[in-house]
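Deliverable D2.4 — example input (structure tokens):
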């Protein structure tokens, strides 16, 4: 039996579904692949092979076609960019290549600015495998989503890496509306950690913004000085699951997750907040919305279960 989109309904979901996904993926058209190398790249190159890389991510972005599903493979980077790197096109994937010792590609802006800035309307983009720093005690997020950055996927990135500054926030929803953003498998280091540098939040949505149906899962937050995940404004139907918030403060509420007054229909489950002790002075989870607006279950506070205060 065929669906309207040409895919057969699988008889056996464990086998047939995989075969069908392979068939569809094999016939899918992918855009160009551009290569960037801060040490060996050149603006005169076409960037279409590792042997003729471009110098900057910005140069590769200029060649991408909006909606074309183009990939940018970053073999080497540091401060060769003009920051922030503005992403203005849809369906662009920016992936760092691991170094010889397995480390992710590192970028540190020399001034107080974001590293990646997703312009209004840039959707279906992907950023992965980077170690992102910044100016210590800065005023920007390392990645800033300006508005309408729907279905953005940020994964396997480190924020506030240990040898330089980290900026104010790791990922910031800087106003406007955002839907179906996924943030997973990232590390966020605060100023209180050993050489960590983020000076405020790990993930932050400001009070004038709206985010809906976003997923924040399987991230690690290490000694953020305020709150690891702070969602203000209109946070609608978010899923916050399986995050580890390590060494959050024991003497203040909302050091792990803070939902604002207008949060609605959010699911917060299986998160773990620890201070190195079984008992914490305050509940690290805060829900400022009216009672019953959100769903809390199976979250840990030290070695105990805890819910939104």
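Example output (designed residues):
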């Amino acid at each position: 039996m065929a669906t309207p989109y040409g895919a057969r309904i699988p008889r056996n979901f464990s086998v047939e579904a995989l075969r069908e996904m392979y068939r569809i993926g094999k016939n899918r058209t992918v855009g160009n692949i551009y290569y960037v190398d801060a040490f060996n790249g050149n603006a005169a190159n076409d960037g279409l092979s590792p042997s003729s890389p471009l110098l900057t991510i910005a140069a590769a972005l200029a060649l991408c076609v909006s909606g074309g599903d183009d990939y940018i493979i970053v073999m080497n980077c540091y401060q060769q960019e003009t920051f922030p790197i503005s992403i203005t096109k849809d369906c662009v994937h920016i992936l760092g290549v691991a170094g010889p010792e397995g480390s992710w590609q590192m970028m540190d802006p020399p001034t107080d600015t974001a590293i990646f800035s997703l312009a209004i309307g840039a959707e279906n983009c992907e950023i992965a495998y980077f170690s992102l720093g910044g100016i210590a005690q800065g005023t920007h997020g390392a990645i800033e989503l300006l508005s309408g950055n729907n279905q953005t996927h940020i994964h396997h990135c480190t924020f506030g890496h240990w040898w330089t500054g980290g900026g104010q926030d790791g990922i910031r929803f800087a106003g406007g509306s955002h839907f179906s953003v996924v943030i997973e498998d990232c590390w966020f280091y605060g100023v209180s950690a050993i050489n960590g540098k983020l000076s405020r939040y790990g993930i932050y949505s400001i009070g004038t913004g709206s985010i809906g149906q976003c997923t924040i899962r399987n991230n690690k937050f290490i000694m953020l000085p305020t709150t690891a995940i702070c969602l203000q404004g209109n946070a609608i139907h978010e899923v916050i699951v399986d995050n580890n918030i390590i060494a959050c403060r024991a003497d203040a509420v909302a050091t792990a997750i803070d939902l604002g007054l207008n949060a609605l229909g959010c699911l917060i489950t299986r998160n773990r907040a620890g201070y190195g002790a079984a008992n914490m002075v305050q509940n690290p989870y805060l829900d400022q919305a009216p009672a019953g607006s959100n769903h809390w279950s199976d979250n840990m506070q030290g070695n105990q279960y805890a819910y939104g205060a």
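The CA atoms of residues 120 and 147 lie 5 Å apart.
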